[in-house]
Amino acid sequence: VQPNSTQPQPPQPHNQASLATNAEQRKSIFKMDMVQALFLESEPFRWLVRCTLVLVAKVLLSNVYVGITKLRHQVYTSPEDRRLFTGTASAADSRFSPVPHPAVERAYAVLRNDQENIYPFFIVALLYVLCGGGTWYCKVYMVTFTVSRCLHTLAYMAGVQPWRGIFFFGGLIVT
Fold first, then answer.
1. DSSP reduced 3-state for 11
2. Half-sphere exposure at residue 133, Cβ-oriented, CA atoms within 13 angstroms
3. How much is the average pLDDT of 75-86?
4. I need a labelling partner for 26 at 20 to 30 A (CA). Which of 10, 37, 52, 74 fits?
């Protein structure tokens, strides 16, 4: 006779496999608590996320700036772009020049400069957070770098010295 599944079953004795599973579950929960404490509840990590979002948005806008500058000066980097915007893919087209336009070169320089400086910031800032750096220093470091990079980009686009250099060194010094 099969036992009725609606009747309560007596508790099963613990075996080694179930005890090991319970211990693994407790370790997993402990690890999640550590991750939550380190990242989700950490004020320095929140500042890292805020500054990272601003800097990623700035890099994306720098990419848009490159595209707009290329269109404004009718600089096409590939035959399909030239064909799309001019109707011809001929290199003899007067709007194609093998020598890049200075404004386009400046736009690309802004983007390269971002890549050379923002990626190291991400690594250093993450290490700072992982090592348990203080909140006040974290805010000063990350906000100073982020504001310096944004102002540096504006100064670079406008070709304004000595401000471009000042903002560059402001971000470099804190990193």
1. coil
2. 19
3. 76
4. 10
